[in-house]
Amino acid sequence: MNRWQVYRLPSFFCAVAALELARAQLSPPEAVARADRAADHAIEARYPDLPRSTYHRGLRALQARDYLGARQSFETALGARYYTDESLLHNYALLLIHLREPKPTIDRAAELWRKHFPQSRNPDPRRYEPPDRGPVMAVAQGE
Predict the structure, then answer these.
(1) Could you list the pLDDT tens digit for every one of the 143 residues in the chain?
(2) In this structure, what DSSP letter does residue 66 have?
(3) Torsion-angle region of 134 (φ positive above 0: left; ψ -120 to 50: alpha; else: beta)
(4) Which of 24, 63, 74, 106 gets the highest tally of CB atoms within 10 A of its CB?
(5) Rounded to 5 degrees, what are φ and ψ at 29?
(6) Residue 67 in contact with residue 135, Cβ under 8 Å?
């Protein structure tokens, strides 16, 4: 065995790390976020009936303060068993709190979130208090 062959694997990993570092320097976070949004719009245009597309329509409704439209979109996505997006489950529970839904309804939504994301670093939605006047919601962006 050639004495330089033992350095092939570490050299490969160093090269990959250097390329990744260069890529990170060349793509600022804003460019990555812009590309993600463009990809989301392309997917929504091509596949409007996907639960993910429905959830994103609900987020836009939430940002426009159309709380009932957002709830309908969230429930449609959840009805299709779209449980792989933590932000959907978390935002749905928060929306129910802000709409002042009954406690059992909120608890079911929060338990569904906790069941699918037990290691989540997001705080339990039930810790939030509903606003004093009218539903006001700070939208957490999907991750």
Answers:
(1) 567 677 776 777 777 777 776 666 666 777 777 777 888 888 888 888 889 999 999 999 999 999 999 999 999 999 999 999 999 999 999 999 999 999 999 999 999 999 999 999 999 999 987 766 554 444 444 43
(2) -
(3) left
(4) 74
(5) -55, -35
(6) yes
User: H helices within the chain, ranges in order?
Assistant: 8-26, 29-46, 51-63, 67-79, 86-98, 103-116
- Other Cβ atoms less than 10 A from the Cβ of 63: the count is 12
3-state secondary structure of 26: helix
CB contact set of 96 (below 8 Å; sequence gap of 6+): 71, 105, 106, 109
| Cβ 99 vs Cβ 105: under 8 Å | no
List, in order, residues 6 or more apart from 77 with CB less than 8 Å away: 51, 52, 54, 55, 58, 88
